[in-house]
Amino acid sequence: ELVDSIRQYITDKDTDWVNGSLLFSKMNYSAGYMALDIWPTYRCLHQDLGAMSDSKTRLLLFIHSYMQMAGIEYVRPVQRFTDIGNEGGKRQSSPLAFEL
Question: Has this prediction a pTM greater than 0.90?
Answer without folding.
Answer: no
